[in-house]
Amino acid sequence: MALTPQNNEAFLREVDEELRRDQIGNFWRRYGKWLAVLLVVGLAAFGAWLWWQNDQRQKAGLEGEQLDTALAQLTQNQPDAAAPALEALAKSERPGYRAAAKLALADMAMAKQDLSAAAAGFRAVSEDQTLAKPYRDLALVRQTAAEFDRLEPAVVIERLAPLAKPGNPWFGSAGEMVAIAHMRANQPKQAGELFARIGNDQAVPPTIRSRAVQMAGLLGVDAVDQTNESAPK
Q1: Helix axes 79-89, 95-111, angle to 10 degrees
Q2: Same domain, 122 and 164
């Protein structure tokens, strides 16, 4: 019996649907297990990532409290009490805490007049490229201060030249050492001019500006100490 066009279309649809069901069944029989494994692995990875994020926040909070406590102990002149926490934080995976702890430990050595240990501690920070530049710049200034009496003037000038410029946050401290190095190198003109620039820079701390004005005057360079002039009247 011949199929009418309408019956023929219905038959083809049934065959097509059956074929698709068969293909879907074969697909799940072949790949369903692996898809389920991938889903479980993906969910496990996502859960692990959430746990790691929470763990990092908790550790960061704990380390922050430890650093605050240690710094408070230093301000209370209790370096021995602060040392263990700072030594542990110096190995932190968090660059900011690691840098702060190492700088504090180096400053403790500086306070004890252990200049070699202080310089080594500051150098470790200044050469650590994983740390932000402000930490490294501060460490370089402090390292140079610890080593100053043992360094040739040319070394001080070359090392701190990038920081001894107006507009740099460390212009006052770095510039003062560079100016003194010029004096030691028998370069009074360069020293006087640099002292004058420091003395006239309102961004430099007042105590450094005041010293710079005095030194510039001794070297025959006019400079105006505007410390009092800038204060509110």
Answers
A1: 150
A2: no
Q: How far apart are CA 97 and CA 75, in angstroms?
A: 18
Token reading at 143: 């390292």
Question: Which single residue is written with the structure tokens 């301000």?
Answer: 75
Q: CA 177 to CA 15: how far, in whole Å? A: 91
Which of 85, 118, 150 is the endpoint of a domain? 150
Q: Rounded CA gap, 118 and 65, in Å? A: 25
> What would the pLDDT profile of 77-99 be if each residue is shown by its tens digit?
888 998 998 899 888 888 888 88
In a domain, 197, yes or no: yes
> Using CA atoms in the order 71, 147, 205, 218, what is the torsion angle rounded to 10 degrees?
150
State if pTM tops 0.85. no
Range of the domain at 102: 58-150
